Amino acid sequence: MFESIITQFLSGFGVVAILVIAALGLAVIFGVAGVINMAHGEFIMVGAYVAAVVSQLGGNTFVAIPLAFIVVGLLGLAIERGIIQWIYDRPVETLLATWGVGIALQVIIKLIFGPELLYAGAPEMLQGGVPLIGLLPFPKYRIFLLVLAIVMVAGTFYLLFKTNFGLKVRAVRRNRAISGCLGIDTAKVDMMIFTFGSGLAGIAGAALAPIKSVSPPMGFAYAVDSYMVLVLGGVGNLWGVVAGSAVIGEAEAVLSFVFNNVIGKLLVFLFIVLIIRVVPKGIFGYYERR
Amino acid sequence: MVEATTRLTARLELAKAKGIRRTPLVPLWALVGGAGIVAAIAAYPVYGSNTYVLSLLGKFLCYSIFALSIDLIWGFAGILSLGQAVYFGIGAYFVALSLKINYALDNPTRYGGKFPDFMEWNGLTELPKFMEPLISTPFAIACALIVPTLLALLFGVITFKRRIYGVYCAVITLAESLILQDFIIEYQAYTGGFNGITDYDNYANMYFLWFILGVTVVFFFGVRALTHSRVGVVLKSIRDNDVRAEFIGYNVANYRIFVFCVSAFMAAAAGAMYAAWVGLISFLDTGPVFSIEAVIWTAVGGRGTIIGSFIGAFLIKGAEFFLSGVLAFWWQLVIGGLFIFVVLVMPDGIVGTVANWLRRRPRAT
């Protein structure tokens, strides 16, 4: 029993990696632009479809990831320019508009690809598992996801803290009005960050496609998980995403094993609600000056 | 008595002196028009014979109450809940379970069991002990109304007391309804799971239509009175600027909790009547998609205008019933576009836009 829980804990790292990958794009957008993108799940779904198409054309995940970043990034750019740029000042209503975008994307994808499931295989070198001493083998693809999660977080950190653009982003996040006074084009920063966040969602889709069948409604579950990660971890701090994912992922992996999937989810939800009762702005949002 | 009258006159005088005009609860023209519509719906079984239209009328009235419950918290208190269907669904499930259990008592299953057939399919051999009280339908109805209200109270105490609202509240309520949905699917032996609860005696008749209509009218006036009272003014001030409302000295959290509970009660009542009227309830009726759909009815009708939720629910649901057959899944695209259109172009909804237009026109001429 104890050993199995250890195994679950280890495989929980895979869940954590998935959550980080899925939630990062959302966190970047919400942290800077203050918009919760309800179409996030559908962005992930479009990324997964890119991966499915690439794999049908003979490519693999490594090709699909950059391609999905570009395709979904451009999609996000179009949606930002067309819809979201007009409603930044009404965050709650953005929920509705982006939900509408999500529905529309699902229908359009269904029209193009049909309602049936598509598959995107993992590259050969990532199939199979790595044996762990005395425990069940750990799937190689999960290790790849862990590495990818670390790379994505590191890349985002680099962009936000080591580049000129990141400096502007952080300035806008701290104080939009004064950043504008200092000559930063805040609308452009919003646009760029929305595009970047959408691209990250695309990467998530391409990377998650091999572990889940690709279908139009696939994104919703990931999106809700991502929202919970944000609520728990706190927005505006990338460590919040990591912390939120770690708590939710591990709790879900272990609790789902001890009880069952649904009870696990319910307990995790209650757990999240209890935590934010103590720290209403999330684990890493608490000391935030606003 | 005389003293009270003088005091009242004095208050009215004071109000007049301050330039405060008491608006009537419902203007006369609306009262007359509304009475006409209510009469037209109530008399439908007399002049119309189409049972399909009859069933739609009852359904739409339940949807309207549901939309009204969202309008109350979103339009008047600024709380956007994307999980309002949780309360609708729990109310509906209590009633549906009770009706199903009673139906099974009279109509044994294939193997002679006197308990709901979906329980038999899932390997239960008798009605679970904890469900036995539901044999009493009044008890089930009481549960259907009280349990969601208490749940809303609990939710409100947990979140609003810690100033969690706005986008956070929306996301948490969304997750709440998703989990309830998963729960219902997983514990199918007790809830009917994926297929929902069906095959029981529903009440789609004239008298029940009148009952639903009566409840709708009561809720309409109730919400109207609430939002026109002092409490309503405080709620609106919280919606517009909660920080200032708190500075003035109002307990913002308690007002929010109160209105959230009232709204949950209304949603539960709508769900309970819906289950009894339609005779089919499934996990979809508690899910996030249904919740958000109802939000869009309110948004289209005009949030913050009570009549808007009725107009929105009747228009969109009506269009869905008549057009979704023709448009197939293009209908989904229409709904998606509607979300974007309402937010971008018509944030006040139909009623709000018309009201603005009427208000502006005399000034322009």
Structure description:
The complex is a heterodimer of chains A (290) and B (365). Chain A has one domain. Chain A contains eleven helices and two strands. Chain A has helices spanning 2-33, 40-56, 61-82, 91-113, 140-162, 164-174, 176-181, 186-208, 219-233, 238-258, 261-278; strands at residues 129-130, 138-139. The N and C termini of chain A lie far apart (47 Å). Chain B has one domain (25-364). Chain B has a two-stranded antiparallel ribbon. The termini of chain B are far apart. The interface between A and B is large, with 37 and 41 residues.
As an assembly, this protein is heterodimer
Largest interface: A-B, 37 and 41 residues
- The helix-and-strand class of chain B reads mainly alpha
Order of helices and strands of chain A: HHHHEEHHHHHHH
Mean pLDDT of chain B: 84
Question: Number of folding domains of chain A?
Answer: 1
Largest sheet of chain B: 2 strands, antiparallel
Q: DSSP helix count of chain A?
A: 11
What Rg of chain B is obtained from the alpha carbons, in whole angstroms?
22 Å
- Cα distance spanning the termini of chain A: 47 Å
Distance between the termini of chain B: 49 Å
Strand order of the largest sheet of chain A: 1-2
What percentage of residues of chain B falls in helices of 4 or more residues?
over 70%
β-strand percent of chain B reads: under 5%
Number of domains of chain B: 1
Percentage of β-strand residues of chain A: under 5%
* Fraction of residues in H or I helices of chain A: over 70%
What is the makeup of the main sheet of chain A? Answer: 2 strands, antiparallel
